[in-house]
Design a protein that fits this description.
By secondary structure, the chain is of the alpha+beta class. Helix content is 55%, strand content 11%. The chain is globular, with a radius of gyration of 34 Å. The strands form 3 sheets. Strands 9-10-12-11-15-16-14-13 form an 8-stranded antiparallel β-sheet, with helices on both faces. The C terminus is likely disordered.
Length: 946
């Protein structure tokens, strides 16, 4: 961003604007309203043209501060001309007595395109209604022009009195800047404010501003690494820079941050960093306002690409333009954090704050330090670790790592002086220190600490130590992934994953993760697991697969950290396979034996299985709020138990037929209270797939459900059950079997706004379908969730019975939901006959949208494919749907031409192109399968033989 002296003359022809106003006034107007109406086009044209020119200049020089100052200048001129040229003619005596000043951000001489215009009108002690009318006229013109104006009208005495009581007003007056009118009043206020308010100590003001900062961070997510950050209010954003400005201006009595260099508070390099950070953030904010046409402060996904392009970022082989832009953004916010720490360190020399934070002021500085046991390099200063002397790091650079280790051991926060010293000593972290055995031992101790390892790692990352000590980690610092699934930057995700592992290690969240909590104490290679969790995404952003590249990084770093060869190989394997368990659990049919045997062949040992389960849980939990849920936990536990049985040699050798017969007998025995006739009828309703995959307690519920439907003469019936632990709601549908049944149910669910997570499809021996649909839970309260589920059931029943037409209800839902144009997902369809012994597995990957599952299942029905189970998985904007299918005679799809047709038809759905085979066909009619038409369609066989 190029900053230079700003030339304002090309923005606005001030003399011409004055002449245009005078010409309007000379034409005369009988009423004030008529005069305002006549002036509006003149000012609107001048304002719009000036702002357009400011936008053009932003594109040319890229300087955000220049842009903000240009817009502020234009606003000054508009206000001055309105007030002096117009108001002076209407209220000549009164207007001359009023001082018009800018406050807030506008008071600093900076203004974003959509920002509020904050004005303070100063009146003399003896004021009149005419003065207020002059102010009112100015305000009405500004409002008519579409500006959002914040304003206050006060005397100097009132400003001083209110500044003593209210920190917000005190901050506003602190930034006051004269625009036009009677300058003597603004000078009087400035003088009295400096002597009566600022001169009486800065402690309360600094405490209040830092307290506001902490509350603001908490509200914005308390991390600067959110992938859709708030540029104004977020951590490391413009408001933090403004807070620094307020504090320095108040405490050091400076009006320009450059003066902090002379005072020794900032080095020249740090001051330049301050300038660059402020300039960049202003550029981003101005672009956001220009692009959206409003005061948008959240840097959301849908505008990130355009702003990246506007600021001149280009794609590189390993990172897209938008990812490079966002990485720059996060690095700048980190610089703001460094500057905050440095400033707080300087303030610490003069005033004390309560441990462990930096936000309170309790009086004059009184140093109370004590030596830390076993350490001559560090001391404790009110609950914070500090350096025993300034030369500690210079004498022994290993002490940089040791400081974090000692702080962790003693549960200490970090003194700002110590953090400042670290920031200024990063050059000492070189290859020699990286290879130092003691430094690596200390780091491994920090990583595997039984206290709060994530807190220490975050401090190491914030101070720049982690990225310097592990250069591979430094490459992913501030790296974002442009997707709705990932909520944080890669480095923040990895630290949160370690935090999740530490929580499991301590036995926290036992209710959410009962299996992981039970297994953790039995994991022998605890150190290896911690290293794997920290490094599992360390190779993100490279051109090759990040799992493979990450395993290679682990083989390099493991020995350096002091791991044994066996541990290094475990870490490398875990990183290489860190997505395996999640993908198998969420996208494969866990009741299919081939799924489990293939997974077990890759895992090979119980030790690996335990570690991979815990790593998978930590990875998912660290993605972002709401990503982990009970349903994912249930899938992972099911896969673990099935695989554990196989790896321990306990998989049943009893034939499938014998096991199905035993299950049928168990069901009949469990229905002992029923009549002999009913027991026989309802225990023999099911085929092998149902008997071998559905738990006996669920079989009993289904039997009761079917019998009640039969007694009530219901051909169509639904049943609901909620499960808060699994975060899932189960809808069971009993209906006459039909090849498009799942499609209709999926469409009805989409129309009702529910997301299907899983589907199990069974056919009874009397030709009915018994389908179990699992939808993601929305409400924490069971009553609310049941009410919602019954609404979904009514929609399913209405569509199946013909009361509602599916295309119409889906269209209504889709219309309400804006189409996602921000993200692109390359559509993919894969067909495999090796993932299951009995079924062809079709995996569909594409951009999620309302009604997609219904559209996919319609095509599968058109192609005469029988769906036996479906697994629906959503990763942000991307959906991966997996279907276990056969043809209508229960065979796999092996014909290459037919497979090609399936792929082509499904890709048509994913890309929302018109399906030639369905053109002009009424809804509900099955389109022909061209391959089947040529071959001759065989009669449909029941799914029972699958």
């Amino acid at each position: 961003m190029a900053r230079h002296e700003i030339e304002f003359s090309g923005l606005l022809d001030v003399a011409q604007l004055r002449r245009d106003c005078e010409a309007v006034l000379e034409r005369g107007a009988d009423k004030i309203l008529e005069m305002r109406a006549a002036l509006l086009p003149v000012f609107r044209k001048a304002s719009n043209e000036s702002r357009d020119r400011a936008r053009e200049l932003l594109a040319e020089d890229g300087s955000g501060l220049n842009c903000a100052e240009r817009i502020s200048y234009v606003q000054d001129q508009l206000i001055t001309i309105i007030f002096e040229t117009v108001t002076a003619k209407l209220y000549p005596t009164a207007a001359a007595q009023v001082s018009v000043t800018a406050v807030g951000g506008y008071g600093r001489g900076t203004l974003a395109p959509g920002s509020d215009i904050d004005l303070l009108f100063l009146l003399p002690a003896k004021n009149t209604d005419e003065m207020r009318k002059a102010i009112e006229f100015l305000l009405y013109v500004l409002w008519d022009l579409g500006f959002k104006v914040g304003h206050a009208t006060r005397t100097v005495d009132e400003c001083i009195a209110l500044s003593k009581q209210d920190m917000t007003i005190r901050t506003a007056v602190l930034e006051m800047r004269f625009i036009c009118g009677r300058k003597l009043l603004s000078e009087e206020l400035q003088h009295r404010f400096d002597s009566e308010i600022v001169g009486h100590g800065a402690e309360d003001f600094i405490a209040a501003k830092l307290g506001e900062r902490d509350q603001r961070h908490q509200k914005a997510g308390d991390t600067r690494y959110l992938v859709e950050p708030n540029v104004k209010e977020g951590k490391g954003g413009l408001r933090d820079i403004q807070t620094l400005f307020w504090i320095t201006k108040y405490h050091y009595r400076v009006r320009d941050t450059a003066q902090l260099v002379k005072l020794g508070v900032l080095s020249r390099r740090e001051w330049r960093l301050f300038q660059k950070a402020e300039d960049f953030l202003w550029a981003v904010r101005c672009q956001m306002h220009f692009v959206t046409g409003k005061a948008e402060e959240r840097l959301s996904f849908d505008i990130q690409r355009e702003i990246a392009a506007n600021l001149g970022y280009h794609n590189r082989p390993n990172l897209s333009a938008v990812e490079r832009f966002m990485k720059h953004y996060f690095l700048v916010t980190k610089d703001v954090g460094d500057l905050t720490r440095i400033l707080c360190a300087a303030l610490e020399e003069e005033q004390a704050k309560p441990a462990p934070g930096l936000t309170g002021v309790i009086g004059r500085f009184r140093r109370r330090v004590r030596r830390l046991p076993g350490s001559s390099e560090f001391v404790e200063d009110r609950g914070r670790i500090a350096l025993a002397d300034p030369e500690v790091f210079k004498r022994d650079p290993v002490s940089i790592i040791r400081l974090f280790h000692v702080a962790d051991l003693h549960g200490l926060e970090y003194h700002p002086d110590a953090l400042q010293a670290i920031t200024r000593s990063l050059h000492l972290i070189d290859d020699r220190l990286r290879e130092d055995a003691e430094a690596n031992r200390l780091f491994l101790s920090v990583l595997t600490s039984r206290l709060e390892p994530a807190l220490t790692l975050r401090r190491m990352n914030e101070s720049g130590v982690l990225g310097r000590f592990i250069p591979e980690f430094g490459k992913i610092v501030a790296m974002m992934q442009f997707s709705m699934y990932h909520h944080y930057t890669v480095d923040e995700h990895l630290i949160r994953a370690v935090e999740a592992l530490s929580d499991i290690d301590k036995g926290r969240f036992a209710e959410e993760h009962p299996l992981a909590n039970k297994l953790m104490p039995s994991i022998e290679e605890r150190e290896a697991l911690y290293v794997a969790v920290l490094l599992h995404d360390i190779a993100k952003g490279r051109q090759e697969d990040h799992s493979i590249a990450g395993a290679r990084v682990a083989r390099k770093l493991g020995p350096r950290f002091g791991l044994k060869p066996k541990q290094v190989e475990l870490v490398a394997w875990l990183i290489d396979q860190h997505l395996l368990m999640s993908m198998v659990a969420q996208t494969r049919d866990l009741h299919d034996r081939k799924t489990v045997t293939d997974f077990a062949d890759k895992v090979q040992s119980l030790d690996r299985l335990k570690a991979l389960l815990v790593l998978t849980i930590c990875d998912i939990r660290a993605v972002g709020p709401g990503v982990w849920n009970g349903w994912k936990g249930q899938l992972l536990r099911t896969l673990y138990y099935e695989t554990e049985l196989l790896l321990s040699g306990g998989f049943s050798e009893v034939s499938r037929k014998e096991r199905a017969k035993a299950a049928e007998e168990a069901l009949a025995n469990a229905l002992g209270s029923w009549s002999q006739k009913d027991r026989k009828t309802y225990s023999k309703l099911h085929y092998q797939p149902y008997l071998l995959s559905v738990a006996l307690e669920d079989q009993l519920r289904h039997a009761q459900f079917i019998r009640d439907a039969d007694k009530g003469g219901q051909a169509l019936a639904t049943m609901v059950r909620t499960d808060s632990f699994r975060a899932i709601t189960e809808i069971t549908v009993l209906a006459p079997d039909h090849p498009r049944l799942l499609s209709i149910i999926a469409g009805a669910c989409a129309a009702a706004g529910s997301n299907i997570a899983d589907a199990q499809i069974y056919t009874t021996t009397d030709g009915r379908a018994l389908d179990t649909i699992l939808i993601n839970r929305e409400f924490p309260d069971d009553e609310d969730e049941l009410r919602r589920a019954k609404t979904v059931c009514r929609m399913i029943e209405d569509v199946l019975s013909g009361k509602k037409r599916l295309p119409e209800v889906i269209a209504t839902r889709a219309k309400a939901k804006k189409k996602n144009k921000t993200f692109t997902v390359h559509p993919s369809v894969t067909i495999s006959n090796t993932l299951s012994n009995k079924f062809t597995v079709i995996e569909v990957e594409g951009l999620d949208r309302t009604g997609l599952l219904a559209d996919i299942t319609v095509v599968l029905a058109d192609l005469s494919l029988d769906i036996h189970s479906a697994r629906i998985t959503t990763f942000g904007e991307k959906v991966i749907d997996t279907f276990y299918v056969t043809d209508l005679v229960g065979s796999k799809i092996t014909n290459e031409n037919r497979q090609g047709t399936i792929v082509q038809r499904l890709k048509t759905v994913l890309t929302e192109q018109e399906d030639e085979l369905r053109r002009g066909m009424p809804s509900g009619i099955i389109a022909p399968d061209p391959v089947a038409v040529r071959a001759g369609n065989p009669p449909r066989k029941s799914r029972a033989d699958a």
